[in-house]
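Class, carefully examine what follows:
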Amino acid sequence: MRIMSDTSLLKLYDLEGYLFDTVRQRFHKQGFLSAFDFFCIVIWKANRAKSKIAQRLLARSASKSLDIPIKELTSGLYQRVTGKDRFLYLIFDWGFYLPMASAIMTVLYPDEFTVYDTRVCGLLNDFYTIGNTRKPEKLWKGYEEYREAVIRATPEGLSLRNRDRFLWAKSFAQQLETDLETCFSRENNGEE
């Protein structure tokens, strides 16, 4: 079992801060990620997906450790020259879906990528199906259009990462206001 130092454990409480301050810098310094750091990204985006992603990665390797396929994946990502090549590598070479691939890319390259999120698609009233294509050029073009729509839908002067945060928060606030108006009625918000 891997135990982090007490100081490092405190950094994990703010997982997003850990990812953007520590994991991103470590990736650019060493050229790959550990399984621990990689799965911090996965958990940050979609905790429910961690087991499926782990099984898919293990199926690609003779190893019983996730460290080997993740080092291969992330060092391959690091070696790609363009954002487009990195993005398509995650999706078409490693089988990640658009939301997770965009989250990985956002953590590692926050000035180039924004997280593809259904909440944001709802605010933009578009882009729900861009991840359904299996054509690399069409997927990349759709993602670029999504990123530009995110920029247009947010106040000027924000970083791309803060544009993500702004739109997520706007969607969250709208949903909570609706839930409060309906007293969290199950019929109105689709919950059981």
